[in-house]
Amino acid sequence: MSADAASEACIDALRRGRIVGIGGLALLSAELADAAALAALEAQSRAGLIITARRAAVLNLANQLAAAAPDPEPVWVERPAWLDLAASRAVADPVLDLATPLKGPFTTRALGADAESARAAITLAKQAALLPALYAVPLADAAPVVTASAAAVLALPAAAARVRISSRARLPLALAEDTEVVAFRPDDGGPEHLALVIGDPSRAGPVLVRLHSACLTGDVLGSLKCDCGPQLHAALRAIAANAGGGILLYLQQEGRGIGLINKLRAYALQDQGFDTVDANTRLGFEPDERDFTLAAAMLHQLGVTSVALMTNNPLKVAGLAAHGLAVARVEHSMAPNPHNSAYLDTKRDRQGHLL
Description:
The protein contains 15 helices and 14 strands. By secondary structure, it is α/β, with parallel strands linked by helices. The strands form two sheets. A seven-stranded mixed sheet has the order 5-4-3-6-2-1-7, sandwiched between helices. Strands 8-9-10-12-11-13-14 form a seven-stranded mixed sheet, with helices on both faces. The termini are far apart. The model has no long low-confidence stretch (mean pLDDT 90).
């Protein structure tokens, strides 16, 4: 099995609640672990709990020597007898912080030779759209169903940018009747992504483009907590009205790359009073986990080299420009409503969106 294939197999196994081996560690998702799976992992030694430095800071572990390294260095939390399955889940999931406010005292250990494996473990959990928290024991003490090198797992974001066109069809939309849908399948087995090619945009000059990350709650259910649905519909209208047409990429990067379930966890944290940035970081994620090499790869396959990008997010501009596209920004913002005004303020004030 190739290094890439082994890494991808580890993602699948981790999402199924199975034990995987990465580098020198055997790992089990803290989110999905049950008593039987944890007992299997701990057949020979007590498992530690690997969490992100961001989550460790929330738990006031950042003042301990072993947890003092800045991101992206994870933190290994030792598990005494009292830190059982339920208590460990409360350590991993910040949504439970109000229900279980008293945690600790914790003991951490230096990662030492396990540092690369621990970083890869966190990367693997994020790629699997799971909470970035894992039980871990030495690889020799467990029987993983599949193993991969730490280096191969750490290279996963770059591998995810390899996509191929799998299908094309005419797709008249209510807001843009002259539309062709182009489906892209990533080589890593991840979710499929779509390009909506509206009209007949010339590749000779800048193509009007919108990068839209999927938002089930906003795009489909009409959530008022964000501006995603209105952004999607306004972009389709603008591209359809543009004399040269354009392209909307519909990217399966829910919740700025953390996945649907984790996004709903972030919503629960917002209900507790945290803004969208703090909700993501309390979960152990970065404020924005998206990798725009995916969008650049799709545009290149469509023959696009220059774009007029409808966005207020400087990261999207920089992400495409870093991969050989000429980018000019076109303003694209929606009026706030009473439910998302604070969310939009946070995007402007803490994430640098040009609103």
